[in-house]
């Protein structure tokens, strides 16, 4: 049974956490390089939010947005 859990430990430490260990070592050399993935995700999320807001504005300007309070049965 001990070998099973040591196998799981080896799998996570040597396989699954390789990228994390690389980023942890990279952070000591360059903080910006280590956090590049975070910046990429923030840029993707910000651009998605801008796209979403533009689409909401287009639907509201064209009159397709139903803002009647009776649009949902639970609001009656």
UniProtKB/TrEMBL annotation:
InterPro entries: DUF6341. Keywords: Glycosyltransferase, Membrane, Transferase, Transmembrane, Transmembrane helix. GO terms for molecular function: glycosyltransferase activity. This is Uracil phosphoribosyltransferase. The chain crosses the membrane at residues 31-53. The keyword Glycosyltransferase applies. It holds the Pfam family DUF6341.
């Amino acid at each position: 049974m001990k070998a099973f859990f040591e196998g799981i430990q080896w799998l996570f430490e040597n396989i699954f956490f390789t990228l994390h260990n690389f980023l942890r070592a990279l952070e000591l050399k360059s903080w910006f390089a280590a956090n590049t993935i975070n910046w990429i995700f923030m840029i993707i999320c910000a651009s998605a939010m801008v796209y979403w807001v533009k689409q909401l504005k287009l639907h509201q300007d064209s009159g397709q947005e139903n803002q009647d309070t009776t649009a949902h049965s639970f609001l009656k």
